[in-house]
Inverse folding.
């Protein structure tokens, strides 16, 4: 697991519109990178909507919010459009970014062990250093908690 003070692992993933998004694009600004399990599930939908609703507040603090899951770009687009989600959603079908950030865990589903995403959020500063690494977070109310962390960093 990554810790505060670690250099944020680089990433390069397509968003819902198939535009490539990478960490280097956010040098000079704060980045909130949150990982979620799957598009269109109750908890993940609530979390994405909350981050979207607070996106103007994050922007006032100079922060960009990105969501990452293992869903593909098409599914992200459908999810975004269905729920009016404004934060950019990145596809990590190959699980490269999830692995780099240590958010994959083994979970038993119907008696079979599978890799699952541990809901996690990283606050990355203007120099690409992780300021907060939050693993195993709750979906509801989490966006407001992250916003408070950013306010306390100022």
């Amino acid at each position: 697991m990554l810790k505060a003070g670690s250099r944020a692992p680089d990433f390069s993933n397509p968003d819902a519109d198939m535009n490539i998004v990478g960490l280097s694009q956010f040098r000079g600004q704060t980045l909130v990178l949150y990982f979620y399990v799957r598009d269109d599930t109750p908890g993940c939908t609530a979390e994405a909507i909350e981050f979207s609703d607070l996106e103007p507040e994050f922007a006032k603090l100079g922060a960009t919010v990105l969501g990452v899951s293992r869903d593909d770009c098409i599914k992200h687009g459908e999810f975004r459009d269905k729920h009016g989600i404004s934060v950019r959603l990145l596809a990590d079908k190959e699980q490269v970014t999830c692995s780099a950030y240590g958010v994959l865990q083994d979970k038993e589903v119907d008696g079979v062990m599978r890799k699952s995403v541990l809901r996690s959020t990283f606050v990355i500063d203007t120099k690409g250093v992780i300021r907060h690494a939050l693993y195993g977070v709750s979906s509801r109310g989490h966006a407001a908690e992250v916003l408070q962390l950013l306010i306390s960093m100022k």
